[in-house]
Amino acid sequence: MGRGAAAGALLVALVVLGAPPAAGAEPLIGVFQEMVQSECHFINCTERVRFVKRFIYNREQYVHFDSDVGHFVGDTPYGEEVARYWNSDPEWMEHRRGAVDRHCRHNYELSTPFLMERRVPPTVSISLVPPSSSQPGPGRLLCSVMDFYPAAIQVRWFQGQQELSEHVVATDVVPNGDWTYQLRVLLETPPRRGLSYSCPVEHVSLEQPLSRHWEMPPDAARSKMLTGIGGFVLGLVFLALGLGFYVRKKV
Ligand SMILES: *[C@@H]1O[C@H](CO)[C@@H](O)[C@H](O)[C@H]1NC(C)=O
Predict the structure, then answer these.
(1) In the structure, how many helices (H) and strands (E) does the chain have?
(2) What average pLDDT does the segment 82-91 reach?
(3) Measured distance CA(147)–CA(165) in Å, rounded
(4) What is the pTM of this model?
(5) 227 in a domain, yes or no?
(6) What Pfam family is a match, any one (predicted)?
(7) Cα–ligand 1 centroid distance for 5 (angstroms)
């Protein structure tokens, strides 16, 4: 693996949904959530690794351990109490400090084949977003880049051979929750007739950029008019032929 950071998180969550009240007790109403989140940050493969463990109650982190710091730090007054209590146990703290090797480095080696080397190529499509009241006109071109892994990706817009670097807006790379990501890149300037547009995608899973092309389909009104003219001309031809036969027969 090259440089760059990769992070893995192991999530252990305990959710108590509207806990049933004990007989005679006041009913507990609401959602109570205790979450413990372990993170391994691989800053340079296994050369530089950071282990962070967060304790979160109802979305609020109250205490955490950071291997760069080496002990628990409270994030709330209650968390400070918890941190003092945990930090005072040397044996358990030794165990915590070992997690960066035991948990992170070990799992990195273990998961390399299916995690670090995981490659899923994107599917790419271009669609025309219909005009809206805020953006009238012929609509806008949207490049949808779906279901790829890992997250790092480059998507550009071209008009013919010329890259369009302005008026291009991209969403964040959105995780789908199934170890794939998606991204959409909108061209804010309306497409012009007769020009070709493309959005080449570069990704580690692809040997060469994957590109889709788009051109404005023929104008419906114009093609109807052309069909009409064609029909009229054809009609004239038959009329002329018919008249020709008629005149010959008479002669
Ligand atoms: C990453 O670690 C390697 C040793 O494995 C070292 O040679 C290299 O300089 C490190 N890279 C960075 C960016 O720190």
Answers:
(1) 5, 16
(2) 96
(3) 24
(4) 0.57
(5) no
(6) C1-set
(7) 12
Query: How many residues would you count in the chain?
Result: 251
- Going by alpha carbons, the residue nearest to atom 3 of ligand 1 is 47
Verify whether ligand 1 is closer than 6 Å to residue 3 (CB atom). Answer: yes
Domain count, the chain: 2
- The range of the structural domain enclosing residue 82 comes to 3-115
Any atom of ligand 1 within 6 Å of the Cβ of 2? no
Task: Give the span between the Cα atoms of 183 and 148, in whole angstroms.
Answer: 9
For residue range 100-155, list pLDDT tens digits in order: 999 999 988 888 888 878 999 999 999 999 888 777 778 899 999 999 999 999 99
State the residue for tokens 């809206």: 132
42 shares a domain with 136? no
For ligand 1, say whether the CB of 44 is within 6 Å of any of its atoms: yes
Does residue 59's CB lie within 6 angstroms of at least one atom of ligand 1?
A: no
**pLDDT at residue 4 above 50?**
no
96 in the same domain as 151 = no
41 pLDDT higher than 70: yes
Residue 153 CA to residue 114 CA, distance in Å, equals 19
Task: Evaluate whether 122 touches 199 at the Cβ level (below 8 Å).
Answer: no
DSSP letter for 104, please: I
Q: Which residues pair with 126 in a beta bridge?
A: 143
Cα of 1 from ligand 1 centre, angstroms: 11
